[in-house]
Write a structure and sequence with these properties.
Elements: H1 2-25, H2 29-43, H3 49-60, H4 66-92, H5 96-103, H6 106-119, H7 123-136, H8 144-159
Helix pairs in contact: 1-2, 1-3, 2-3, 3-4, 4-5, 4-6, 6-7, 6-8, 7-8
Amino acid sequence: MAERQGQAAADVLMTRIGQVVMLHHAGDREEARHRFLDLWAEIGEHGDALHRCTLAHYLADTHDDPCDELAWDLRALTAAEELAEDRPAEYHGGRPEDVLAVRALYPTLHLNLAADYVKLGRAEAARTHLCRARSASDALGDDRYGDGVRAAISRLESRLGEGDSGGGGAWGPPGRRP
């Protein structure tokens, strides 16, 4: 019974995060940032890793200062790493599909970090995270989301002059989907 209540509370928090995401996507960036920060204060720096990862990931996008955006994206990655270590075994019995779901977060998280470092003029750090995003992209599905993330990786590679045009190179073997 207590486990069900914990899951219900978690679902309620994810719903609340989703509502703020919709507010942000509707254009009210500042209000979304304030609500995200309120949720962050509620769950705390040691709250559930899934909640921290999700919240930090979206909170980063509400900041104008690239340093603030980077700080939140780093928090999201840290929480994802905790999530990858803890959640599958603790909450889901280590089911393979749950491990894959956590792995599918990494391409986007590393892509966001690469973009942050580009904004800060730190090309080498950007390249490092872009390489990690590309390497982790095999966990993405063959769907609209996966295609969009792969396309964004390719665009940032091109912007940095490091793109793989399908003939091998720094970001992958020949024939690898961008």
